[in-house]
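Box 4.2: Ligand-aware structure prediction
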Amino acid sequence: MDEFKYIEYEVADHVGTITLARPDKANAQNERLLDELDHRFRTAEYDDDVRVIVLRARGKHFSAGHDLDTSDPEDSVQLQEPDGSWHYHKMYRWEARKYLNYSWNWRNIPKPTIGAIQGKAIAGALNLIWPLDLLVAADDMQISDPVVLMAIGGVEYHGHTWELGARRAKDMLFTQRPMFADEAHRIGLVREVVPRDELWARTQELAAEIAQHNAFGLAQAKRAVNQTLDVQGYFSALQSVFDIHSVGHGNAISVGGYPVLMKLDELKENLKDQ
Ligand code: ZN
């Protein structure tokens, strides 16, 4: 990939910083953004000079989730046939590759990853947040997964139950209400909450602190924790819940496409000027 349109990347002092740079669309994820993001994660993974990887986002919001506007064939996969019908098998394979597998690979990069999260992080944004190791939140952060509005049970990479606990995960999905920064801190989801204008400085400080340590020691520490989750069934759960998600798409299609898609579109429209 020679040219990057939606992702910025830089390395300084052993920290690789990946930036979602589509602020005019609240960093909504189309196929091109995801491909660029994956490419940059792999660049950081294979660069021996990089010991810690940071993911941050430009603009007011971390990410509005998947870009529902797929009208640009250059940037977006076309999952509908010319007659408007959905190519369900293609959608299943594409989502497995671009959502589940990308996120799973990022989760397993043998280097610490840190997220700097501000503003709204909606639905597909969680596919980017759950794979990260540590999170620093701005005080205006709010995360949500309102895809029950689309007749679907949750996004593709279902870390929810592990990250939030079973009852809190159900509450978020049933009510579509966001979780705010203070609660995320209270339950240990984010390590600290800082004023919005201090988010980047504080994240850099944390990354610099961790980057001083032995790379192999850090990799082993990460693997020890991840491996413990995996023997408890983490990956099996992700895979089987991805299939539940995909049945949701089938349901949405069977009830006439996305009858409630507009609600989510409105939600995203509201993000643009903020
Ligand atoms: Zn999906």
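In the box above, the bound molecule is zinc ion. The first helix runs from residue 31 to 46.
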